[in-house]
Amino acid sequence: xxxxxxxxxxxxxxxxxxxxxxxxxxxxxxxxxxxxxxxxxxxxxxxxxxxxxxxxxxxxxxxxxxxxxxxxxxxxxxxxxxxxxxxxxxxxxxxxxxxxxxxxxxxxxxxxxxxxxxxxxxxxxxxxxxxxxxxxxxxxxxxxxxxxxxxxxxxxxxxxxxxxxxxxxxxxxxxxxxxxxxxxxxxxxxxxxxxxxxxxxxxxxxxxxxxxxxxxxxxxxxxxxxxxxxxxxxxxxxxxxxxxxxxxxxxxxxxxxxxxxxxxxxxxxxxxxxxxxxxxxxxxxxxxxxxxxxxxxxxxxxxxxxxxxxxxxxxxxxxxxxxxxxxxxxxxxxxxxxxxxxxxxxxxxxxxxxxxxxxxxxxxxxxxxxxxxxxxxxxxxxxxxxxxxxxxxxxxxxxxxxxxxxxxxxxxxxxxxxxxxxxxxxxxxxxxxxxxxxx
Length: 439
Prior knowledge:
Elements: E1 5-8, H1 12-23, E2 28-31, E3 55-58, H2 64-74, H3 78-85, E4 87-88, E5 93-96, H4 98-110, E6 115-118, E7 131-133, H5 141-151, E8 156-162, E9 165-167, E10 177-178, E11 189-194, H6 196-208, H7 229-233, E12 261-267, E13 274-277, H8 286-293, E14 304-306, E15 309-315, H9 318-321, E16 327-328, E17 331-336, H10 346-364, H11 377-386, H12 413-429, H13 432-438
Parallel strand pairs: 1-2, 1-7, 2-6, 7-17
Antiparallel strand pairs: 3-5, 4-5, 8-15, 9-13, 9-14, 10-11, 11-12, 12-13, 16-17
């Protein structure tokens, strides 16, 4: 076995890659620049710190998000296992106590003798060393420059917004009610209703509020799956009621009717002393956030533990620079993982970390690596980001739209997709190629 593999970045993708390589007998140097150098969004030195939502999306196996989790479970994902052990109530979604989640992963990684955690910023790539780059959306300027130099690409960026967190003791529970859109007796979400006039006043104030001025180097390209609420509101007065403030499936017990609009709060931790505002990512200034969000009746006296904020999200133009195995077309021993590769979302990044590790394992052992077929969730993501026929590239969450469409009647498509995915992933797991990499 050649010298240790370098894994740069200890977020979700990086810890997955390091964990798998270590368990396959490979020495790993895992580089994490925090706390020597912090990012604009992180607040701790813990590995796999979640800086946006604490939700890892849905678990329903009939959905694309559920399929991806099922595949990650079969791949023994450290991130998924840790999430299940630190989950907080969130209905059909898998949400975690982010502090307990990061602490568990950090302890697990630090306990592995083959993983050598190096706390320093990496500013250049040693092309002679097998390397996985998993530095995520907050890749430092120096390293981003080094990656651009290697790939010949300037790269792309867009804003990724963080939702506010409110102190649970400052919420007016007389003006809120617990319940889920899918289960009225569920207490996983706290709902803050607004009537028609309250909603109109909220939208008016939101549209008039001041926003943070972007830095000159930040080219704003908003990701459709994570739009700031003020951007959504600007698309029309009713847009929020069909987005994060939709009242569908909810009944206010005080009136016995569906609210005109609703803001859902989700527990931030197991203690329940903090809630985050679901889908309320924002780029408003902190003073404006306080003023606008307190127009929500249940939050009129709210104390915010964290305001929404924005940061630059960096990713490569994957279809132009990556091979199907996630390695750079110009350097087989350099593999890109996580959000830097062009996927969007926690579990999607996790999946690319695992696949990056398999790709490096194949390289080390002189064997080809065949990714899962596009009929699977992981394979669909890999095919999407490495499809050379793609036009302008934008990051993507897992969804059925990136799976190959079966040639069947419309009413049979979902069932056929699910059946085909299960068979295709099982077959891939059983291939000699996959088993050989694990030996």
